[in-house]
Amino acid sequence: MFGVVLTGYCGLMLAGAVGLSGTSGRLHVDSCAVVRTNNKPTTECHGQLLSAGGRLIDTDAVIDADARIGSTIAVRDQPLTGLETLGFRAISGWATLTVTGLFVLAFGIVSALTLCGWDAAATAGSRYIAALAAAVGAGGLIYLLAVLYEHLFQA
């Protein structure tokens, strides 16, 4: 069940990150502050939200993102979650989490097949688990490199 929910939610977010859902816009960052929620620090940025056509949507929009004051970042207003950043970092992160959901789902199916005594089907499914595990690892590495690149080389 967890794999289905994780895959569905992250798949929706991935669809937004690649531009298939939600409404696109730009956020001009006026200020950022570190906010602690449940003892977890997040960077919360405020600014003017403009539509893709340049129309002012919100004068004090808020997004959880690492952004520099004065910069303009591409965002999408998602139906269920609000504003999300766009770009390679978002795509690689949501793709990795979507594949992680598929990994959890496949692992649950193979475990159920094993418990039911369908060992041949479980063995065949294990190959898919190995491929998904490799994809999760590669996606995590790509996401890490994207985060490092943004922090080190973006002005």
Largest sheet: 5 strands, antiparallel
Number of domains: 2
Work out the radius of gyration.
19 Å
Percent in helix: 40-55%
* Low-pLDDT segments, ≥5 res: none
| Average pLDDT rating | 85
Task: Give the overall shape, derived from the CA principal axes.
Answer: elongated
Structural class: alpha+beta
- The portion of residues forming beta strands comes to 25-35%
Strand order of the largest sheet: 3-2-1-4-5
Q: How many runs of DSSP E, i.e. beta strands? A: 5
Q: Which quaternary structure do these chains form?
A: single chain
Note the total helix count. Answer: 3
Ends apart, CA distance between termini: 42 Å
Keywords: Membrane, Transmembrane, Transmembrane helix
Describe, in plain words, how this protein is organized in 3D.
- The protein is 51% helix and 30% strand.
- The chain has 155 residues and is of the alpha+beta class.
- It folds into 2 domains: 23-85; 89-153.
- A 5-stranded antiparallel sheet has the order 3-2-1-4-5, with helices on one face.
- The chain is elongated and about 60 Å long.
- It starts with a helix and ends with a helix.
